[in-house]
Design a protein that fits this description.
The chain is mainly α. The protein contains seven helices and no strands. The protein has one domain (2-142). The N and C termini lie far apart (61 Å). Bound molecules: heme C (HEC).
């Protein structure tokens, strides 16, 4: 009897959780970094789901409470580094952000390990790690010209 009530309560709570609003946004950005097609592909495959406005929301991003964790990660990642808004960053900020990309990928801190286990194609190969490190350490004027002009502010 008690077990049945607990089960019923769990089901009710699980259903109720689905009604808590979660904001899965993908707003238009100012423009991405002007890098080679290969590097763009690496960034898109391994980083863009969190660090851009082009998140491919997985099916579990629609199921509370997992959805809350996914949205939290994406919000935190976009706040720190949003490749979709690369063109809007000050040149000095771009240099600083790039300088972090080499080390965090080299030590496999990024992409986050649980993301890699759920998205095996995001795993970075040795040559991709080297290309990221080279971009991270390249001269500002080469690496920081935006691919698209910044969007005028409304
Ligand atoms: C699953 C989401 C996710 C993916 C995928 C991801 N990141 Fe992150 N990233 C985060 C979050 C969340 C933070 C905020 C810091 C934290 O959680 O400690 C972060 C922080 C960072 C930082 C700031 C420095 C640091 O280490 O905290 C850099 C740089 C970074 N990420 C680069 C990348 C790059 C480059 C990729 C792709 C190779 C990537 N990230 C992939 C979620 C992600």
């Amino acid at each position: 009897m008690l077990a049945k009530s607990i089960l019923a309560l769990t089901v009710v709570v699980a259903i109720a959780l689905q009604f808590v609003p979660v904001e899965r946004t993908n707003p238009l950005g100012a423009g991405g970094p002007n890098v080679s097609v290969e590097l763009q592909w690496t960034l898109r495959r391994s980083c863009y789901d969190c660090h851009s406005n082009e998140t491919r929301w997985p099916i579990w991003a629609y199921l509370a409470p997992i959805s809350w964790m996914v949205v939290d990660d994406v919000d935190a990642a976009r706040k720190i580094l949003n490749f979709s808004d690369w063109a809007a960053y000050e040149p000095g900020v771009r240099v600083a952000l790039r300088s972090m990309v080499g080390p965090t990928t080299a030590i496999h801190r990024m992409p986050l390990w649980y993301y890699v286990s759920l998205h095996p194609d995001s795993r970075l190969s040795q040559s991709e790690l080297e290309a990221l490190a080279a971009w991270a350490g390249s001269a500002p004027e080469e690496a920081d010209i935006p691919a698209l002009p910044a969007r005028p502010s409304p």
